[in-house]
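Try this one yourself first.
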């Protein structure tokens, strides 16, 4: 029996590409492969993360999630621009400032950078949490279709070839193209869900959370 498990997924990669990490596992897969007679078990390979997030519903959900976080992304960009402007102002007028004025501006920059970093981390955590929940719900539904497809087509073992998976599963180093059922499962799920393919969209902006900025040295 197979089951779907959750995984943490990075905000940067998903915001940029709309793709996440795998959430697929099989209980007793290694034992089944070891005990089955040679040639008796029909094996298939699937990239489960591609099946989930590459489905029409997965693409739609990810697009909606990225759109939801665009205002926060814009806010963070404005904060970063404000910090850059303060740094530039300090550099251009530094020689005319008193020590007290310089310390005041340095403190202001430092406070804004800390706030920027906190806001970026909060945005990333919120995005990742909502994306994880959305992914898990969809993965359960796609798995149900995978389960039916594997049974209907006589597969006794399905291996997940998703990149970066951390489950204790056999690593797929090579597989005949005919053994890959990813597209077939996606097509079957799209037909069942009734969700139309999303229209082409413009490239997704860069992630809102950026690396901490360093204040000018005194």
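Now uncover the answer:
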């Amino acid at each position: 029996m197979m089951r779907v498990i959750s995984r943490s997924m990075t905000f940067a990669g998903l915001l940029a590409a709309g793709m996440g990490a795998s959430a697929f596992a099989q209980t007793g897969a290694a034992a089944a492969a070891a005990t089955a007679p040679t040639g008796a078990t029909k094996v298939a390979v699937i990239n489960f993360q591609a099946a989930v997030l590459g489905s029409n519903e997965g693409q739609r959900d990810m697009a909606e999630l990225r759109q939801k976080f665009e205002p926060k992304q814009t806010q963070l960009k404005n904060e970063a621009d404000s910090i850059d402007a303060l740094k530039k102002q300090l550099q251009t007028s530094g020689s005319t400032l008193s020590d007290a004025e310089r310390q005041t501006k340095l403190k202001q920059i430092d406070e804004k950078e800390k706030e920027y970093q906190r806001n970026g981390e909060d945005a990333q955590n919120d995005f990742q949490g909502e994306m994880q929940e959305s992914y898990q719900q969809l993965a359960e539904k796609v798995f149900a279709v995978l389960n039916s497809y594997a049974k209907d087509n006589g597969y006794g073992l399905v291996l997940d070839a998703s990149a970066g998976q951390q489950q204790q599963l056999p690593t797929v180093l090579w597989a005949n193209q005919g053994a890959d059922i990813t597209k077939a499962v996606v097509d079957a799920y799209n037909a069942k869900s009734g969700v139309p393919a999303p229209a082409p969209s413009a490239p997704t902006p860069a992630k809102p959370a950026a690396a901490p900025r360093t204040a000018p040295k005194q």
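Discussion: The longest helix spans residues 99-152. Helices lie at 11-17, 29-35, 48-53, 56-68, 70-93, 99-152, 182-193.
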